[in-house]
Structures are given as structure tokens and as C-alpha cells.
Design goal:
Layout: H1 2-10, E1 17-25, H2 32-44, H3 53-79, H4 86-102, E2 109-116, H5 121-130, E3 135-140, H6 150-161, E4 169-172, H7 180-197, E5 201-207, H8 211-215, H9 220-235, E6 242-247, H10 260-269, E7 274-278, H11 287-303, E8 308-311, H12 319-331
Parallel strand pairs: 1-2, 1-3, 3-4, 5-6, 5-7, 7-8
Helix pairs in contact: 2-3, 4-12, 5-6, 7-9, 7-12, 10-11
């Protein structure tokens, strides 16, 4: 018990309420080794790849992890920031902004964790509990629930808490896909983009998941569609003024469709010369928004005949995003008093 008391004394600020923000994770550097380690942890999780290990692991630790890190390193290098990975930089800024919005750490303490890589869920929870937290709010940075993302966060939290004698009161926020403040934050980001660049066809691009996950009961597609419905209603768009699409598919399995690049090509072929792309399933900008959409999809659309491709930044650490997360916590039972 001495180590526990010592940790509490060294933590400085004491608080009975904690908020754990969790994002996916990122390599520590845009080079082969860190990317290999990150992908090995990420793609070994059966929440992510629901395949028989006897079939999947030889592929993963054979050709996939031999060649994919090298290709992925070039993509990360194209978007890497001076402070580090975009996902990590923006997530840290978001956690800091939320801490400032919620109050002093002696009132409520905010910690950031990653499902894969560092800072780990275990380390973040250890810090929170060592600081005296008895009521813990877990907020995965995934507006729409999927077992492959939010479910993996729950697994990590449960595993981290197994070793603690006193488990805190736990409030797990599974999603916030239709929360009014989140929808308004998205709508405001699109309006800001249109004010700067002009209104154009809205492409709502979300991270995809395999179709079989939905068939097994994953609510992700339904929640993505509801987010899109609420967003286009807030913007006053008709059915011909937007497209709902899915990106980031991996492997031979059929993923949710229509695929982003296919729809962009169709729009260009139909004479749609300008598009605005928003990515509601990504809380912060990362490789998938900045490189996959901002560079690769942009190039494909322009090559197909498009003329203007505007990517709306993710909500990141914007005031609207912080206010939306605070509202989500309030609805989950957190009290500002």
C-alpha cells in the first residue's frame, strides 16, 4: 500500500472526479520501428480484426507487418507536425482545453489516454486513482459507437481496473452521435468553411467498418446516418446537396459503402466541380483526415475532373468542440458544482 500512498502524495492535485478522454493511438515517430509496434498492437486486437488468430496472425506478423509500416511511414511523414503526430498533438490540446473548461484539477481532473500506444489507458487510470478519484467518467473520442473502437476502450478500462482494490464509480459514455451541441459544432465548422470558400456539395466522410460487424449488431452505421441526418437538417440541405460516404477500408472484406473515393469520382463525372468534405467520425485531425482525405482523395477528385476540394478541419480543440464534450459529460451525470 505504500506505493499507492506515495503516488497520491506525488500527484499534487487531489480530486474525487476524473474524466478520461481516450483516442485510438499513434506511433511515436514516422519511422518503420515505431509504426511496426503500433500496428502490431492495434491489428492484434480482436475487437479490431475479428478473424481467427490461427489465420490472421501469420498474415499480420508475416507480409502485413513486413511491408505496411514502410508504406505507412511515408504517409505519416507527409503530415507529421513539429510537436509530433497530428492525432496526439490535437488530442493533447483538446484535453487541456477541456480541463480549463471543466475547472481546476482539484475539482475535476482530465487525463488523456490512447487505446494503443502511449499514454496507455492503464497509466492514465493509475494517475487518476492515485489522485483520489472516486467517480470516473470515460469519454472515448468516437462520436458514433463501434465495437472496434469504443468497445476496445471499454476492454482497456476494465482491464486497467482489475488490479485496483477500490474501483471508482464508473460512467462510460458509449457515444454522443446525436447530442445537439456536437451537431451544432459540426454545422458551425461547415458554415465557417463555406463562408471562406463558398458553398458546395457536402461530402460527409466517415471511417468505415466491415459490413459483417453491422450484421452482427454493431450500431455504427445507424449512428453515422443519424449524425448525417441531424447535420444536413441543421444546414438546411436537400437530398441532392450532400453525400454520405465511408473511407479507410482495409483488406479484402466488404466494408460499408459507398466508398469515399468512388463517390468523389462519380460526383466529378456528374459535373460537380466543387466539394466540401467533413469527417464527423474523427474528433481530431489525424492521418486519415489529413493524408487519406486531404491529399489522396483530393488528388483523385481533381484528376477525375473536379476543380475545388475543401476539407473542413476536424473539430479538434475548438471552443465548440470543448463545449460539446462538456455538455455530453453533463448529460452523463457530471456536475459542475
Amino acid at each position: 500500500m505504500a506505493w499507492f500512498l506515495g503516488a497520491r502524495e506525488q500527484s499534487g492535485e487531489m480530486s474525487e472526479t476524473g474524466v478520461l478522454l481516450v483516442n485510438l493511438g499513434t506511433p511515436t515517430a514516422p519511422t518503420y520501428g515505431p509504426i511496426w509496434r503500433y500496428l502490431a498492437e492495434f491489428l492484434s486486437d480482436r475487437r479490431v480484426v475479428e478473424a481467427c488468430p490461427a489465420y490472421w496472425y501469420p498474415l499480420l506478423f508475416g507480409p502485413i507487418l513486413t511491408f505496411r509500416p514502410r508504406r505507412t511511414a511515408k504517409l505519416y511523414q507527409a503530415v507529421w507536425m513539429s510537436e509530433g503526430s497530428p492525432l496526439m498533438v490535437h488530442s493533447k490540446q483538446l484535453a487541456a482545453a477541456l480541463q480549463q473548461q471543466l475547472g481546476h484539477p482539484s475539482q475535476v481532473r482530465v487525463e488523456l489516454a490512447m487505446t494503443y500506444g502511449q499514454p496507455s489507458i492503464k497509466a492514465a487510470i493509475d494517475r487518476l486513482l492515485a489522485a483520489g478519484v472516486k467517480s470516473l467518467y470515460v469519454l472515448p473520442l468516437y462520436p458514433q459507437y463501434s465495437g472496434s473502437t469504443t468497445g476496445a476502450v471499454f476492454d482497456g478500462v476494465a482491464k486497467a481496473l482489475r488490479r485496483w482494490r477500490r474501483v471508482p464509480s464508473l460512467h462510460f459514455i458509449a457515444d454522443y452521435h446525436a447530442d445537439p451541441r456536437y451537431i451544432e459544432a459540426l454545422a458551425a465548422s461547415v458554415r465557417t468553411s463555406w463562408a471562406l470558400h463558398g458553398k458546395s456539395h457536402l461530402v460527409i466522410s466517415n471511417h468505415g467498418i466491415p459490413v459483417k460487424y453491422v450484421e452482427l449488431g454493431d450500431p455504427y452505421q445507424q449512428q453515422v446516418e443519424k449524425t448525417a441526418q441531424r447535420l444536413v437538417a441543421a444546414l438546411g440541405l436537400g437530398s441532392e446537396e450532400f453525400s454520405l460516404v465511408f473511407q479507410s477500408r482495409f483488406g479484402p472484406t466488404t466494408w460499408l459503402q459507398p466508398y469515399t473515393d468512388d463517390r468523389l469520382a462519380e460526383l466529378a463525372a456528374r459535373g460537380v466541380r466543387a466539394v466540401t468534405v467533413v469527417t464527423p467520425s474523427f474528433a481530431v485531425d489525424c492521418l486519415e483526415t489529413l493524408e487519406e482525405i486531404g491529399a489522396t482523395s483530393r488528388a483523385k477528385y481533381l484528376a477525375a475532373g473536379g476543380e475545388q476540394f475543401i476539407l473542413v478541419p476536424a473539430l479538434n480543440a475548438s471552443e465548440d468542440h470543448v463545449a460539446a464534450l462538456r455538455a455530453t459529460l453533463l448529460r452523463a451525470g457530471w456536475s459542475a458544482s
